Amino acid sequence: MTMFGTILLIDDNSQDNFIHKCVIEDAKAASEVIEFVYAEDALKYLKQAGRPKIDVVFVDINMPRMNGWEFVEAFDELYPELTADTRIVMVSGSINPADRKKAEQNTSISAYLSKPLTKQALEHVYVLRNLPPSPTADTL
User: Fold this and answer.
1) Which of 36, 58, 80, 117 has a Cα at 20 to 30 A from 25?
2) pLDDT in tens, 49-105
3) pTM here?
4) Burial of 11 by CB count in 10 Å (0-12 exposed, 13-18 middle, 19+ buried)?
């Protein structure tokens, strides 16, 4: 069963994007996976007319040029019709407890996951995707 239509992966580490895409494809969790190395490129894509609806954005925190926090701020400034029903999930290798806490307190972030992405984590996000947005992020 496909859990999601289109998923965006944003991570400056192309190996992480590759691994996460493989996990998503192996789990048959999405009909399409679109990868970006730079968050600015993902934002440009999100502004394009005629693109598919995005169900979930998995974004890394620590990236050059625009980090994950800056991406979330810019995402929030997009027109609601561009981002309606899209969930943002932070996926990070950060061991800094402040990152987790910041994500949990940000109402734009649905969940904070530790790398690498797993099938179990995808199932967790799927459950969250079908719940109304919560005032705080969930963590796994």
Assistant:
1) 80
2) 889 999 999 999 999 999 999 999 999 988 777 777 899 999 998 888 999 999 999
3) 0.88
4) buried
